[in-house]
Amino acid sequence: MTVDAKPVAELPDPRDFGLAVVPEKEIPAELASLVEEVRSLVDAVAHTKAGAHELAAARDAVAAANACLQGDRHDVGTMVQQTWPDGRVEYGTLTNVVSGPTNAAAPPLRMEAAPEGGLRGEVVLNGTYQGPPGLVHGGWLAALLDQALGAAAGAEGMPGLTADLNVNYRNPSPLDTPLEVTARVTGTERRKVFVAGEVRHGGRVTAEGTALMVRMNLPGDGGA
Ligand SMILES: CCCCC/C=C\C/C=C\C/C=C\C/C=C\CCCC(=O)SCCNC(=O)CCNC(=O)[C@H](O)C(C)(C)COP(=O)(O)OP(=O)(O)OC[C@H]1O[C@@H](n2cnc3c(N)ncnc32)[C@H](O)[C@@H]1OP(=O)(O)O
């Protein structure tokens, strides 16, 4: 495969596209712990056997919390800037449903540079990600892979959108236990970035995916 997509020397700055950026270290600790609490709450609500009295009390407490938070909001599209220990800077959407640090619906998946190249992350999906009994929903496995594959292209300086995603489910992925997610760039051709990745449980591949990411058109690309 031709290798002619040039990684950008520096990642595009979302501010140049009119998007707000929040550095991750500026997310208040209180918000981070609130998000954790809500993640646990969603799981508790999904599985509770509490009686009517406890349910009504919980509903009122949640309604009060909800009312507390109906103030100023970040715009949709706000980006979060993460700086890794190796100095690598990464941008993602603040409320990305797979990895967003302020999204209680996100597991969240965090990918870091893998020693063997590409990216690697570990994630535990609780019972709110259930498809078949005790197993992760296949759509969520596709979402994990999509995110990891996109992040792998971004980490090589070629952020883009998924044009085509293929997922093979090889073995069941259990809930409530660490899953390893790996992803890497396998080739490039003009603006096309080919990526591949896997989800593993206990070292065994449970799902594998390949995708075509089309790199963002950047100033100076000349439409290539
Ligand atoms: C806004 C700026 C923000 C700045 C951000 C800065 C940094 C961000 C950094 C990192 C981001 C990191 C991670 C993100 C991680 C994960 C996110 C998860 C991924 C997603 O959740 S993402 C949402 C789902 N995704 C979509 O919502 C896409 C909808 N879609 C489109 O928006 C267009 O469709 C697009 C853009 C894909 C292409 O459009 P286009 O006009 O730019 O490009 P064009 O059509 O010219 O194609 C160029 C070459 O790709 C070939 N090609 C195109 N499409 C193909 C297909 N489907 N199959 C096979 N080949 C295809 C052509 O054949 C040609 O090939 P060739 O070079 O050989 O001629």
Automatic annotation (TrEMBL):
Tell me the keywords, alphabetical order: Apoptosis, Cell membrane, Cell projection, Cytoplasm, Fatty acid metabolism, Hydrolase, Lipid metabolism, Membrane, Transit peptide
Q: What is its EC number?
A: 3.1.2.2
Bilayer topology annotation: Peripheral membrane protein
Tell me where in this chain the Thioesterase domain is found.
134-206
Q: What class of enzyme is it?
A: hydrolase
The organism sits in which domain of life?
A: Bacteria
Question: What compartments host this protein?
Answer: Cell projection, Ruffle membrane; Cytoplasm; Membrane
UniProt keyword Membrane present:
yes
Q: Which InterPro entries match?
A: HotDog_dom_sf (IPR029069), THEM4/THEM5_acyl-CoA_thioest (IPR052365), Thioestr_dom (IPR006683)
What GO MF annotations does this protein's record show?
hydrolase activity
Query: Hey, which family's this protein in?
Result: Belongs to the THEM4/THEM5 thioesterase family.
Name assigned to this protein: Acyl-coenzyme A thioesterase THEM4
